[in-house]
């Protein structure tokens, strides 16, 4: 399953409201707010953040800015005005 890309649930949308004053979100909360599965969240993080072979920490917390980036990475349609950085190449 490591090479399989968890599919986005297109029937869900990020329409959950944030709790006032909540600064950090755990994995389940982040996935729910983004409308994606926890497996897809992990896959997006593995592809875009923890891709140097070190692996991800066991306890992750996210801020709203992190959720914005993850939502960007989850987009299927590229945005013409945004240039993506090339993937890291393992040495």
What would you say this structure looks like, in words?
With 91 residues, the protein is mainly alpha-helical. Helices cover 33% and strands 4% of the residues. The chain has a two-stranded antiparallel ribbon.
Overall pLDDT confidence: 79
Q: Gap between N and C termini, in Å?
A: 24 Å
How much helicity do the residues have?
25-40%
Strand order of the largest sheet: 1-2
Q: Could you tell me the radius of gyration in angstroms?
A: 14 Å
Task: Please tag this protein with its features.
about 90 residues; mainly alpha; two-stranded antiparallel sheet; 3 helices; globular
Topology:
Elements: E1 25-26, H1 27-34, H2 38-48, E2 61-62, H3 64-74
Provide a short characterization of the protein structure:
This protein has 91 residues and is mainly α. It is 33% helix and 4% strand.
